Amino acid sequence: MKTKTVMHLSLCRKAGKLKGGFDAVVEGLKEGRIFAAALAVDLSDKTKKNIIFIAGHLPNPVPVVLLDDRMDDIALIAGKRVGVLGVTDRSLAKKLCELGQHQAQMREENTLC
Hints:
Elements: H1 4-14, E1 18-20, H2 22-31, E2 36-39, H3 45-56, E3 64-66, H4 71-78, E4 84-87, H5 90-112
Parallel strand pairs: 2-3
Antiparallel strand pairs: 1-4, 2-4
Helix pairs in contact: 1-4, 1-5, 2-3
């Protein structure tokens, strides 16, 4: 099942504004070309910590969205199986963050039930 965030990431890819893979995203973060990062739910904890650390310790910190989607779901839109994605457009990154916040709220509401 595709979530709104995955559909948005698909739009980013079609627009040519999506980078995939740990190395590509880290390079883009360090060069200031990535404005938001997204991490798959089944990504290793070590990789998640590394991306969050790098994104948070830049001169201009970059938001990181934790997706509810697995790498297999992301592979359908990214063209390859990756757990780390970076958005290279400011407005698309802003929308991804909004969708990520909504996704987090839904996750919290579901755990309270």
